[in-house]
Design brief:
Elements lengths: L1 H18 L2 H25 L11 H10 L3 H29 L4 H28 L1
Helix pairs in contact: 1-2, 1-4, 2-4, 4-5
Length: 132
């Protein structure tokens, strides 16, 4: 999974070079690589000790994730999903920058800020629901 994430990171970085400068391609590569490593570590922690790992459906996986109260896995998923937004923000902002070049940085910062705020609110609501 982490090797597939590396290949996906390279692909996103190459796409980012078409829309931004090379510096933003490095940011996209690192953010997507950190995201794939965090999600891979979360899966490794989930399957630790399991001798037979069977594929699950999407609804079964959602149910399993809701029941999971392991804080290290929860934080790894939080970091992974946060960096997904940071990796995809240059692509969205670069696409908008093709039509509105002066708004590229504004769009990038807006997307990253909103994505981070959304995740912080989500983390707080999950923490409150776990306490109850």
């Amino acid at each position: 999974m982490i090797l597939a994430g590396f290949a996906f990171s390279v692909l996103l970085a190459l796409l980012a070079t078409q829309l931004w400068t090379a510096g933003m391609a490095v940011v996209t590569f690192i953010a997507s690589l950190v995201s794939s490593i965090a999600f891979g570590a979360s899966v490794i922690l989930q399957d630790r000790g399991a001798t037979d790992i069977s594929p699950t459906s999407f609804s079964q996986q959602q149910r399993k994730n809701r029941e999971d109260i392991n804080p290290s896995r929860r934080h790894l998923r939080f970091v992974g999903s946060l960096f997904v937004g940071i990796a995809l923000a240059p692509l969205v902002a670069g696409s908008i920058g093709l039509m509105w070049p002066t708004g590229r940085w504004f769009t990038f910062l807006l997307i990253v800020t909103l994505w981070a705020m959304l995740h912080i609110v989500s983390l707080r609501s999950r923490a409150e629901s776990v306490r109850q």
